[in-house]
Specification:
Shape: elongated
Number of helices: 12
Distance between the termini: 23 Å
Radius of gyration: 29 Å
Order of helices and strands: HHEHEEHEEHEEEHEHEHHHEEHH
Structural class: alpha+beta
Length: about 375
C-alpha cells in the first residue's frame, strides 16, 4: 500500500518556510546551471545564425578562418562565374569578395583595448546577409567611412555613430549603424572593400562568399573548385563554416560551467539532505503512525523521496525564472579563431528549461534518498515512543 501523493504535497505547504529555504538553495544552483547553458547556446546561436544556408564561402585551402585566408583577384573573379552561383536581376553573379582586418579599440565599460573586426565588403554583402541599416547611412565609395553593428557600437569607443576609428594610417568615420539580427556581424565594422585593401596595402581578399542558385549545388561546386588546379581553395557552406567557429569556445564554456555547477550542486544536495533530516526528526510520530496503519517501509521511503524531489522541482521553478530576464543581457568575448571580440546574448531554449528542471529534480531526489532511507528504517515502537 502506497502513501498517498497528497501526503507529500501537503507536507510541503505545511512547512512553507523550510520548503522555500531548501528550494532557494536549489534554485540558486539552477540559475548558475541555466546561465551557463544559455551562454554556450547564445554564443553558438550567434555564430551559426551568421551563416546562411544558401551561401557558400571560399577560403584558401587549409585556412581555419578568414583571418588567415587569401584569395587573389583573378581567382575571385573566376569563382563568381561558376554555374551554381545565383544571378541577380542585373545579370551579375550574387557574390562578395571580402577582406578581414583586425584593429584594436577601447571598451566603453573599462577602457581596456580589445580586437574588433573590420570587414571590407561589396554592395552584394548587404544583399546576401540579414543586415538592415537602422541609423545614418551606408559608406560612400572612395571615402574612409564605415558602418557598425549595433552591439559593437554600444560596447567600443570609436564605433558609435559619428565617432572615428584608426585603420591603416587613416581616421575612418562611422556614418551608419546596422542591425544584423543578433548574428556575428553585429560585432563588426563594415566598409568599402577597395578602400580597406588600399589602406592596409593588401592586394588579396580573405574570402569569397557566393549565393547558390540551389543549396543542393554546394557539393558540386565544392568538388569542382577543390579539384581545379587553378585554385588553392576550399569551399564550405556558410552556416557550416560559422558552426565550426563556435565549437571550441562553446565547449569550453560548457565544461567550465559544468565544473562550477557541480561544486554548487553538491552544496545544494547537502542542504536538501539536512532539511529532510530535520523534517523527518520533527515527524517521527507521523512515521510511526503510518507504519502502524500498515504502510510498509518502501512506501515511507518513496513518500519522503517524492517530497524531496518536489522540493527540487519548486527550486527549479524558482531558479529558471531569472533565466528569462538574463536574455536581455549581452556579453562579448574573444573568438579564438578570429582573435576578435564577438558580442552575444544569453539565449534560452526549451531544451535548456527542460534540462534545468531535470537537474533541479535530480538534486532534490539525491538529497532526499538518505533521509528517506533513515525514515523507512525507524522501528514502529521507537517512532511512536519518540513522538
Amino acid at each position: 500500500m502506497a502513501v498517498p501523493i497528497a501526503y507529500s504535497v501537503k507536507n510541503l505547504t505545511a512547512r512553507k518556510g523550510t520548503t522555500l529555504l531548501a528550494a532557494a538553495g536549489i534554485g540558486l544552483v539552477v540559475v548558475i546551471f541555466s546561465a551557463v547553458l544559455m551562454l554556450a547556446h547564445g554564443f553558438r546561436k550567434t555564430l551559426v545564425s551568421t551563416g546562411s544556408l544558401d551561401n557558400a564561402i571560399v577560403l584558401r585551402k587549409g585556412a581555419t578562418s578568414e583571418l588567415v585566408s587569401s584569395i587573389d583577384r583573378d581567382q575571385a573573379a573566376i569563382l563568381k562565374t561558376q554555374p551554381e552561383v545565383a544571378v541577380g536581376s542585373d545579370g551579375a553573379p550574387v557574390a562578395a569578395s571580402e577582406l578581414i582586418v583586425i584593429i584594436s579599440a577601447p571598451k566603453r565599460s573599462n577602457g581596456e583595448t580589445s580586437n574588433i573586426v573590420v570587414r571590407g565588403v561589396t554592395p552584394d554583402s548587404l544583399n546576401m546577409r540579414p543586415v538592415k541599416l537602422v541609423e545614418g547611412r551606408t559608406w560612400t565609395p572612395g571615402l574612409s567611412e564605415l558602418v557598425a553593428g549595433s552591439l559593437i557600437a554600444s560596447k567600443f569607443k570609436g564605433c558609435g555613430l559619428g565617432e572615428t576609428v584608426h585603420l591603416g594610417g587613416r581616421d575612418w568615420t562611422v556614418v551608419g549603424l546596422f542591425d544584423a539580427g543578433e548574428t556575428g556581424f553585429e560585432s563588426e565594422l563594415w566598409g568599402d572593400a577597395e578602400q580597406v585593401m588600399a589602406a592596409v596595402r593588401r592586394p588579396t581578399y580573405s574570402s569569397v562568399t557566393v549565393k547558390l542558385k540551389d543549396p543542393a549545388g554546394l557539393d558540386t561546386l565544392k568538388e569542382r573548385i577543390e579539384k581545379d588546379p587553378r585554385f588553392n581553395a576550399q569551399v564550405q557552406g556558410e552556416r557550416e563554416f560559422y558552426d565550426k567557429q563556435s565549437t571550441y569556445i562553446a565547449l569550453f564554456i560548457q565544461i567550465l560551467g559544468i565544473f562550477v555547477t557541480s561544486v554548487f550542486s553538491l552544496a545544494a544536495i547537502l542542504a536538501a539532505m539536512l532539511t529532510m533530516f530535520a523534517t523527518i526528526s520533527s515527524r517521527t510520530a507521523e512515521i510511526g503512525t503510518l507504519r502502524a496503519l500498515g504502510y510498509p517501509r518502501r512506501s515511507i521511503l518513496l513518500a519522503f523521496v517524492l517530497e524531496s524531489t518536489l522540493v527540487g522541482i519548486v527550486g527549479g521553478v524558482v531558479g529558471i525564472l531569472p533565466a528569462f530576464a538574463l536574455q536581455y543581457l549581452s556579453f562579448s568575448t574573444t573568438n579564438w579563431t578570429s582573435f576578435s571580440e564577438v558580442a552575444w546574448k544569453f539565449s534560452l531554449s526549451g531544451e535548456i528549461v527542460a534540462a534545468s528542471m531535470l537537474f533541479a529534480a535530480s538534486m532534490g531526489f539525491l538529497g532526499g534518498l538518505l533521509p528517506a532511507w533513515r525514515a523507512a528504517r525507524i522501528p514502529i515502537v521507537d517512532a511512536l515512543r519518540e513522538g
